[in-house]
Amino acid sequence: MGAPIVHFEIGCKDRKKTAEFYGKLFDWKFESYGDMPMLEPQGGANSIGGHINSLGHEPHQYVTIYAEVDDITKYLDKAGKLGGRTIVPATEVPQMGQFAWLADPEGNVIGLWKPMQ
User: What's the CATH architecture for 7-63?
Assistant: First the structure.
């Protein structure tokens, strides 16, 4: 089985305004993780959670998915050999795990996620 899609992220300039929009549009219920609106899976076995983020720099508007992997560095290296490139190296998320961003050969950016064991 391949790496499952486990999370999504919506980038914006105004987290509160964006979370309010999606909350009203889809009846999504956000919980705060610090100042970041987090969305738990909304139901069903195929549902995934996500969050609204403001990087404070470009890119401001983006949507990305995260694939769960067992070794972020291994997948970043493999992506590089396949013509992709690392955008954000393995980065610790306190008490949760690690993430990274990579770009495919066409420039699409996706995330990698490794939860804490």
Answer: 2-Layer Sandwich (3.30)
Cβ contacts of 99 within 8 Å, gap of 6 or more: 66, 72, 88, 90, 91, 93, 111, 112, 113, 114
Identity of the amino acid at 54: S
Cα angle: 44, vertex 36, 45; to 5 degrees: 10
Under CATH, what is the fold of the domain 69-117? 2,3-Dihydroxybiphenyl 1,2-Dioxygenase; domain 1 (3.10.180)
- What residue type is assigned to position 71 of the chain? D
Task: State pLDDT tens for residues 30-70.
Answer: 998 888 899 888 777 778 999 999 998 888 899 999 999 99
Mean pLDDT of the chain: 92
